[in-house]
Request: fold
Amino acid sequence: MKKRISLAGQIFIALILAIAVGLLMQSHVGIAAAYIKPFGTIFLNLLKFVICPIVLLSIMCGILSMKDIKKVGSIGWKTLLYFLCTTAMAISIGLWVASLTKGWFPSLAEVEVTGHTVAANTAAVSLMDTLVNMFPSNFIAPFLNAEMLQVIVIALILGFSIVLLGEHAAPVSRGVELLNDVFVKAMDMILKLSPVGVFCLLCPVVAENGAEIVGSLAKVLLAAYICYILQCLLVYCTTVHAMGGVTAFQFLKGMAPAMIFAFSSASSVGTLPINTECCEKIGADKEVTSFVLPLGATINMGGTAIYQGVCAVFIATCYGIDLSLGDMAKIVVTGTLAAVGTAGVPGAGPVMLAMVLQSVGLPVDGIALVMGVDRIFDMGRTVLNITGDAACAVIVSNLERKKEARKAGNA
Reply:
């Protein structure tokens, strides 16, 4: 039986073909724009269509699945706090490094951005304005205007409301889960069109800009991997040493098998068994790892957060747009909440990136510039994701042991 090429492989082939055909069509740019790009636009429209319901329903399902978190007490809250803080730090590192290295990225002559989009990005947006704009004044507008922060707030309010109603809301809870399954399947169908979408969006860009865009892909990958290393060393290793009672060398040495497996498989969930074994050898308690690691595989996406930050700056630079401090603050908030809410969704990376781009008015078309090498991004970000899960398990285990020791001493 003939083995089928994976979706990642198909997208990479589409990337190569788009570059080759685009270079050949440099003297026929009008044809590429008129007859190839529209099919890419159709793919983007379908992707935009599924973003809002996926974000709403997946975050609600995440809240519903954690309704028993009180049973795990302090373990649950320490875990969630660590994940939220480190994810926010990850996307901040991504934005910082990408801003420092944005001179590496090209400004594409092909891009035409409408006046209102540029104005939206160059206008000064205060932090308080961002805070106020997070909260919707009606239910429908956030979905019509793709206001992602407001969609996330709606998801949080509805999710916690269902949890507080308890068994009385069980049918609603089940309905939300079923709807989420429906939209995840719809997204899966749409993402299968990714090779066509990438080819049709990237080919006209290469035809207009030539080989310049090809070299920029290597540079954005380098920027992302620099961020992955910084997050691992400055955040995870430092916090493990400070709060987990394990040196950075011991941690990295113990985690090496899981990190290698994660890099080759690009699957956080698939790495769970070996990650659990590595954590327990380092010193994490079994009851902690059994809670923290599966939860982390679902909601902790530090690597994905970095990917969003780097790609947002890269795409903004390519489109000749400067991100303001308000835009960057919005990316940090949106990216952090989105990573927690949609991390368990298959193929969530491009969907989350589209959401972040929309939150600051950047063209979603820019996804085509990075989607062809998404697998290479994914290998590094998966390693970082499972490393963050393990760091949390080691830290929480150590904090819980100290807590029990204090209780025993007081008794």
In short: Residues 29-65 form the longest helix (37 residues).
